Amino acid sequence: MGAIPSRFSSTIIFGLSALCSTAAMAGGTVPSFVQNGTLKVCTAGDFPPMEYYEHPGDTQMVGVEIDVVSALARIWNAKPDFVIAPFTGLLSSLEARRCDLVASGISVTPERLKTYDALPYFTTAVVVLTPASDTATARPEDLSGKVIAIEAGTTYEARAADLNSTLRAGAQPEVTVQTYPSAAAVIQQILVGRAAATFTQDTTAIFRRNQMPDALRIAYTYPDHNTYGLYLRRSGDDLQSLRQAFATLRQSGELAAIAARWGIAETALDAAAGPQ
C-alpha cells in the first residue's frame, strides 16, 4: 500500500457527494435493516485510518470506513448513525440490534461467519509494530521472551498464540501477551516502553508511523493477507442488497476516489469484486 497522509480534513465524510448523486438509487434493493431513513453502524472508533476522531473533542469520526458506510447510506437514501462500542462488544451489539452493520477494521473469519453474514471488502496484512529504537527485531520470533500488547477480542490473540507455539517448538522463551481494550491503548504501551511490540494491520501501522516516524517502526509484514468485512445479521436478501450497493460504488468510481483520498492502493478495496 502507498503511504497514508498523517492528517485529513474533517470534511471528508461529505467530500464525495457529487459522485453519490449519480449512484443514488442505483444500488438495488434497500436492505431491511435500513429503517426510517437511518443506518445504524457499530464501530470502536479508534482504528485510524479506518475510523477515528481526528482531533480531541471532535464529535464526528473520519476514516476510510466512515466514507464507505456514509456512501452506502446515501445510496439507500439514509443517514448513518455511528454507535461506539468496545471492539469486543461489536458483534454482540449487532446481535442485540443496537446497530445494523459493524464496520471497525474487523476481519472476516470462518468462526465469525458461523453466526453472521459479512461482505469482505478491504485486503490488508498483519504487521509487527515496534519502537523505532528497536532495530534488532526482524521477524516475530525475535520477540521471544518479551512483552507484546494486543487489542482484546481481535484475531491478533490467535496470532500471538501461534507465535508462542512456534517458540515452544524451538525451545525458546514465549512472549508475554497483555491485552488492552483499544488500539490506542496498545500503541500507548509501546510508546511508554511497557511493551516491546504489537500485532496490527499495515493500514493503521503506516498511518501511526507517519504520524510518529521517530517513535514507531514496522519490523515485519506477514506474507499472508486477511480481509476486513462489513458484518450484518442474517436476514433474507440483505447481504445481496449490500453487495449490489457496493458494486454501485465501485462502478461509479467512488471506491477509487475514497482510496485516493486516504492514500491507499485502489486494489485494497477490491476484496468484494470477486464472484457474488
Annotate the secondary structure layout.
Blueprint: H1 17-23, E1 38-43, H2 64-75, E2 79-84, H3 90-95, E3 101-102, H4 110-113, E4 117-131, E5 147-151, H5 156-169, E6 176-180, H6 183-191, E7 197-201, H7 202-211, E8 216-232, H8 238-252, H9 254-262
Parallel strand pairs: 1-2, 1-3, 5-6, 5-7
Antiparallel strand pairs: 4-7, 4-8
Signal peptide: 1-26
Pfam families: SBP_bac_3
Domain Solute-binding protein family 3/N-terminal: 38-266
Detailed description of the structure:
By secondary structure, the protein is α/β, with parallel strands linked by helices. The protein folds into two domains: 38-124 and 226-268, D-Maltodextrin-Binding Protein, domain 2 (3-Layer(aba) Sandwich); 125-225, Periplasmic binding protein-like II (D-Maltodextrin-Binding Protein, domain 2), CATH 3.40.190. Helices cover 31% and strands 22% of the residues. The protein is built from nine helices and eight strands. It has helices spanning 17-23, 64-75, 90-95, 110-113, 156-169, 183-191, 202-211, 238-252, 254-262, and strands at 38-43, 79-84, 101-102, 117-131, 147-151, 176-180, 197-201, 216-232. A five-stranded mixed β-sheet has the order 6-5-7-4-8, with helices on both faces. A three-stranded parallel β-sheet has the order 2-1-3. β1, α2 (64-75) and β2 (79-84) form a beta-alpha-beta unit. α2 (64-75) packs antiparallel against α9. It is globular and about 55 Å long. The two termini are 25 Å apart.
Form type: globular
Under CATH, the homologous superfamily of the largest domain reads Periplasmic binding protein-like II
N to C succession of SSEs: HEHEHEHEEHEHEHEHH
Low-confidence stretches: 1-25
Strand order of the largest sheet: 6-5-7-4-8
Q: Structurally, how many domains make up the residues?
A: 2
Q: What is the strand content?
A: 15-25%
CATH C-level class of the largest domain: Alpha Beta
User: Largest sheet, if any?
Assistant: 5 strands, mixed
- The count of DSSP E runs of length 2 or more, i.e. the number of strands, is 8
